[in-house]
Design goal:
Elements (H helix, E strand, L loop, with lengths): L3 E11 L2 H12 L8 E6 L7 E10 L12 E7 L2 H10 L9 E3 L2 E7 L5 E7 L4
Parallel strand pairs: 1-3, 4-7
Antiparallel strand pairs: 1-4, 2-3, 5-6, 6-7
Length: 127
């Protein structure tokens, strides 16, 4: 079973997410919104399929990265999140929540061996 297919997002804490968005827009040309920016790309195996990787600064007091204490969180793109979760349960990986489904995909959070929170994302077909 193919597990991770790519990086879905890079999220980090900062003092002022709006100012950080503006800095990256001004100095590096990011097309930012209040949610950061999305980088679009094409799948190597099927260039007709488009994908995205999200980049987003979060407030330094965000609770979204908890229980991890790191200043960052990485989102990994996966295939078949339900099957992957069954494998991870058998491997005694810490699973923090239940699968949440939105119109842009399914998400769940786990911890790695050092307590870093990881977000797993199975994008919908149209992403």
């Amino acid at each position: 079973m193919k597990k991770v297919t790519g990086i879905g997002g890079i999220f980090f804490k900062c003092k002022d997410p709006n100012a950080m968005n503006e800095w990256y827009k001004t100095h590096l040309g990011f097309n930012t919104s209040p949610y950061g920016t999305s980088f679009e790309w094409r799948e190597e195996e099927d260039p007709s399929k488009k994908g995205t990787t999200q980049w987003a600064p979060f407030s330094e007091d965000t609770k979204y990265f908890e229980p991890a204490t790191k200043e960052f969180m990485i989102n990994y793109r996966v295939e078949n999140l339900e099957a992957l979760m069954e494998e991870l349960k058998k491997e005694n990986v810490t699973i923090l929540d239940e699968i949440q489904t939105y119109d842009y995909g399914k998400f769940i959070h786990i911890l790695d061996m050092e307590g870093n929170k990881i977000e797993l994302w199975e994008p919908t077909e149209h992403d």
